[in-house]
Amino acid sequence: MNYSTVILGVVLAFFGILFLLLIVYIVKSNKAKSGLIGKSKKMPPLDYMREIGSKCPDWGVYKGKDSAGKIICENVFNIPVNIDPNSNFKCYDDAQTRTKNFSDAKMNAEGIMDQEAEKERCNFVKNCGPTSEMKAWGLGVSSEQMSPGYVNCGLV
What we know:
By secondary structure, this protein is mostly helical. It contains 3 helices and 3 strands; from the N terminus they run H-H-E-E-E-H.
């Protein structure tokens, strides 16, 4: 028997075992991570709330800013808005295009929205919130699993 063949066999066996151990480690690591999805992170993530979620209600599609720097949200899906005829509050700034303008929500590092923006969004929910036929509404959601940046408005 040739010693170089034995040495080559030992080296190949070593790398084979190393390869198997690496595969077992990767599989166990992925299973551990998948068990934590949605449990350790608050959803949606704070960066989403800063960049997208705090701009418009769930029905609203961000369309940019107007000349005064207010955020323009359009109800492109035509989701019913509960417009109170006895209120002076305007649910839409332009009813024809179904757009509503909101002030730019500024958030601190913990995701707390500035009071002006929060009050404005809560007034919108109070005056234009879900119709009696709707089971859910984008603003006014409160949960321990929700990310900072959601506006509670004391509804839930």
